Every structure is written in C-alpha cells, then in structure tokens.
Amino acid sequence: MSDLLIKNCSVLQLARDGSSAEVLTDRDILVRGNTIETVQPTNLVNQSHFRTCINANGMLAMPGLINTHAHVPMVLFRGLAEDVSLERWLNNCIWPIERHLTPEDVYWGMLLGAIEMIEAGVTAVADHYFYMDSAAEAVEKVGIRANLGWAMFDWMDNSIIEQTSAFVSQWQGAACGRIRTMMAPHAPYTCNDDFLRATVRAAEKLGVGIHIHVSETKQQTQASRQSRGLTPIQVLERTGVLSVPTILAHACGALPEDIEILTKYRTGIAHAPKTYLKLGMDIAPVTEFRQAGVPVGLATDGVASNNTLNLWESMRLLAMMQKFLQRAPEVLSVPEALYLATVESACVFGQGEQLGKLSSGYLADLILLDLEGVHHQPNHNIPANLVYSLRPEDVQTVIIDGQIVMRSRQILTVDKTEAIKRVRSNLNRLALRQKES
Ligand SMILES: [Zn+2]
User: Which fold has domain 2-64+359-411?
Assistant: First the structure.
C-alpha cells in the first residue's frame, strides 16, 4: 500500500533545459514514504490502495519553492529598520539588537518564519543565523526542509568553529534527513583568511559545505581589492572555501573574472532581489552567471530587509530587474523564471538530484495551487500567471518529505496562534533588554 495519492490535478512540467513550460492535466501523483513514486494519468489506480487521498481537482501541482538564503528568525525584526543604508542598517539597527537575542527568541522566530514560508508554498530553506540548535528544533517540529548554518564572525570566541562544528555533527541528517547543515562564516569582510581556512578544514572533516555572504556590493569588491589585493570571490578561492560545496549569498559585485572562477567549482548564487532594491545595493549579474553555467537560486534574505518571506515576489522581482537592467523584455522568460525557482534553486540548495521536480524518485516536496481566483482569470497562460499573478494565499496544500504540512491552508504540525503570541511577547522583552543595556 502506498501512502499518499494526490488525485486528478494539473502538473507544471518544464523542459529539461528550462526553455518551455506546459501544464499537463488530469494527473495523479503517487507518493511512497518521502518519495514521489510516479506521476501518471488519472484513474489508473484504485484510491482504496492508499492510506491518504487528496482530491486535487482544479488544482495545479508544482515543486515547492526553495529559499536559498535567509535569516528566518529575523522575522522578529520585521519593519524595525527602514529607509537606511546597508552599513547603518547593520551597524546601528540589526547588530545591536541581535546581541540581546536568546535561543528562545530564535526558536519562536524560526517557527513563525517557517509558518509564513509554508503558507506561501516554500518547502525548503537554507538558513544562516545564530543559536541554530534552537532553529533546528523549530524546523524539526514545523516540518519544513532546511539546510542550517550557524553564523560565525572572526571576532567571536576562538572556540566558535568548534562549537558550530558540534552543531553540524549533531544535526546533519536529523529529522529523517530533512535537516542538513553547513558551516556558515558570515563573509570575507568579517572573517579573515586564517579564520576562513580553519572553517574549510572543519567543513572538510565534517563532510559538509559552506554557506557565506560574498561581494554583496561593488563597493565591497573594490574595498577587498584595495585591502587584500583580491576580490572577495578570489579570497574564497585562495582560502579553499570554494573547494567544498558552497552557497554564495548575493555576489552582486562579482566581476567577469569572478564568474570565470566560479565555473570551476560546485557552487551556486542565492539571489535576494527585494533586499537589493530596498537597500539600494547593486544587482547581481544573473544572466552572466547563468550563461556561464553557475546556477542562481531564489532567496528572500532576512525579513528585516525584505519584510516578507514571499519567494513568489523574489521570482517576480528577479525576472523584472534583469529585463529592466538590460532594457530587454526577452530576458528571463516565464519558463526560465520557473526553472530558476525550482530546478536551479534545488541545485543551489545542494539537492539538485532530489528536489525541484515532480518526477519519480524525487523527494515529495510539492505544493497544490488554487488558480480559480479572479487574478488568474481567464487563465490563458498558467505559467505566466505563476510568475506574475500568483498570490501566496493561492497555495492550498503543502507536502514536505511526503508529509502533509498544510492542508486547505491549515497548518497541521504546530499551533500558529501560539507562535504569533510568543513572538509578540518575546519581542517586547527583547526591546526591554536592548533598552536596559
Ligand atoms: Zn544574508
């Protein structure tokens, strides 16, 4: 007996090279354990052979979206620092308040943010923050898939690499493989070369990759050239960071020679367009990365700069910004945007062989969308509606690792009302802690 039958849905199908997108109608999706067994024409199997059946008539199934770079517990800081520069945002707003965070704050922030993501059809997140053991507990409970990294700066206690290594050892493969881990030095401008080399040694020993911010702006690239004689990406190559699998957040200031370097390594770029727009940063050379074969994944970054964890918005902005930059509406077509949001984001996330497609043998991370709303009508072009018209509320049901985590917009794994309540009361205490210091 198989575990789950998703009956009579439409399925988004992308060409192998991402050049076209079509919608197949009247399909059943069969799930066994945490894996997609097959996607086939409807009514070939008997519903009674399944433990659970979802009648998905009128719904579209597609792979869950993957957030390739976030600081989810920063939902606590939503709306706290608006209309300031990246430097002021970090130095005057974010870092002072982060010093007062407790593991409990991180737990509830992670839980609330994960609920926000699941409600918007995000089934996996690569997260980079502090107290990640608490974040991991929230991830385990809420049912989302995550790749977690405990953020490190070189001014931290000498034992920080050992401490985060212990976190990696404890949580790698936890929650039946739903949780993975990476080492997470903050960035080349906050971690010196020796610190980066020590991190690489730890990552190699543990058999994990590295998740790091790099070349967030062109100005950072220039400053690095002046102080180190190398671009931040050259620093990553020189210190060995690129020798392990990496998630590189932003790379907005990457130069053509940097892109050339990246083609030699197992790496991907996490792209968070709303942050770049809001903080007036530079826009990453997405087209150049992709042409060179360096995958680009969707990201929200933290809510303190993005205000939401809505990846549909990220996809939309990413495509529109590239069109605008190049004054060329042909760039980043609808099928390419969907390919980037699914297949390519899965590669950046580090599970390109297992996620991002609804195919036999892939992990059962999928979402069911209701496309009946007025904003989808008259449904001439469903792929275009997914990129440019969809609202997070259209996500009806979310399945992660074969488990139904949200059904008919009801989160089944945790108490959402309690999470909201706890975050509100914790934030009041956090503001007090900051005032008292
Ligand atoms: Zn970030």
Answer: Urease, subunit C; domain 1 (2.30.40)
Distance from residue 301's CA to the centre of ligand 1 (Å): 5
Q: Give the tens place of pLDDT for each residue, 136-165.
A: 999 999 999 999 999 999 999 879 999 999
Q: Which of residues 437 and 41 earns the better pLDDT score?
A: 41
> What's the pLDDT at 247?
98
> How many residues are present in the chain?
437
Cα 405 from Cα 144, distance rounded (Å)? 8
Output the CA torsion 338→343→349→353 (10° steps): 170
- 199 contacts 183 by C-beta, under 8 angstroms: yes
Distance 283 CA to ligand 1 centre (A): 15
Q: Pick the closest to residue 94 from 310, 311, 302, 309 (CA basis).
A: 302
**Topology of the domain comprising 66-349:** TIM Barrel (3.20.20)
Q: What is the pLDDT of residues 38-76, one digit of tens each?
A: 999 998 998 888 999 999 999 999 999 999 999 999 998
Beta-carbon neighbours within 5 Å of ion ligand 1: 249, 301
Ligand 1 centroid to 144 CA: how many Å?
20
pLDDT exceeds cutoff 70 at 418: yes
Distance, in Å, from the CA atom of 89 to the CA atom of 279, rounded to the nearest integer, reads 9
Q: How far is the CA of 139 from the centre of ligand 1 (A)?
A: 19
Output the CA 103–ligand 1 centroid distance in Å. Answer: 19
Q: How far is the CA of 15 from the centre of ligand 1 (A)?
A: 31
Q: What is the pTM of this model?
A: 0.96
- Domain boundaries defined on the chain: 2-64+359-411, 66-349
Distance 223 CA to ligand 1 centre (A): 19
Ligand 1 mean position, distance from CA 429 (Å):
25
Distance 9 CA to ligand 1 centre (A): 36
